């Protein structure tokens, strides 16, 4: 097993690939006024957790999940196969066509960059369309060292004002935002902890042990500062 295969094994078969809850999705739909026969893309949909919430909340919509990793796309297809208005496509989220009334992107836009990704997606939005995305954020006040350590591999992280500046640089305006702290992270990490324990019981090799240790360390860092580690869920439209 290669280090990449080990990483993918640790992250396979869990409900979510990042922090969030169904309530975050429903809040975004309500604030943006998304309902009825709309077209929605879940960009970087992972195993389909938020895609399922979108599809359940929007039974008349056309829902498209886009995921680059084959095993996650397959997990999403299996999860959503009973819903005829959902289609999962294995492709790069950078190249969306649309037109979409909403592009939802939970914890994945940073792969493209906030400004760069929003610029690329502008032409994929229908008139009046919106983007909802979650992005790592530093909370107000002094930043504890453990938070800096947690985000060490994402040096582009800023406070909320910094995120807003990147949004405006892409030609968008903020409609609203909310913080994802606590519950959303627990929804991500609790199943992962159980998955780590199950994999450790299977006599893993050295590469998988290293990946398990890295994931366990990440969870331990969050558990040490759950009120200080956050995503900002941003609702934006072209200005």
Automatic annotation (TrEMBL):
It comes from Thalassococcus arenae. One of its GO terms (molecular function) is methyltransferase activity. The keyword Thylakoid does not apply. Pfam families: Methyltransf_25. InterPro entries: Methyltransf_25. This is Class I SAM-dependent methyltransferase. GO terms for biological process: methylation. Keywords: Methyltransferase, Transferase. It comes from the Bacteria. Residues 40-129 form the Methyltransferase domain.
């Amino acid at each position: 097993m290669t280090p990449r295969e080990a990483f993918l094994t640790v992250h396979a078969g869990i409900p979510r690939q990042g922090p969030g809850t169904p309530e975050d999705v429903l809040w975004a739909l309500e604030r943006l006024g998304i309902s009825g026969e709309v077209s929605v893309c879940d960009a970087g949909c992972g195993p389909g957790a938020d895609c399922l919430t979108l599809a359940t909340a929007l039974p008349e919509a056309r829902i498209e999940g886009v995921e680059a990793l084959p095993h996650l796309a397959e997990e999403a297809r299996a999860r959503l196969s009973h819903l005829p208005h959902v289609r999962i496509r294995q492709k790069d989220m950078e190249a969306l066509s649309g037109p979409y009334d909403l592009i939802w992107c939970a914890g994945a836009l940073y792969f493209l960059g906030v400004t760069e990704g929003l610029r690329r997606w502008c032409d994929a939005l229908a008139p009046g369309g919106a983007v909802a995305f979650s992005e790592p954020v530093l909370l107000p006040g002094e930043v504890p060292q453990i938070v800096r350590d947690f985000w060490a591999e994402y040096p582009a992280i800023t406070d909320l004002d910094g995120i807003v500046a990147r949004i405006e640089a892409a030609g968008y305006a903020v409609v609203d935002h909310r913080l994802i702290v606590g519950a959303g992270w627990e929804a991500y990490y609790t199943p992962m902890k159980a998955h780590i324990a199950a994999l450790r019981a299977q006599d893993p090799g050295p590469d998988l042990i290293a990946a398990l240790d890295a994931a366990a360390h990440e969870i331990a860092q969050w558990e040490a500062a759950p009120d200080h580690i956050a995503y900002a869920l941003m609702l934006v439209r072209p200005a």
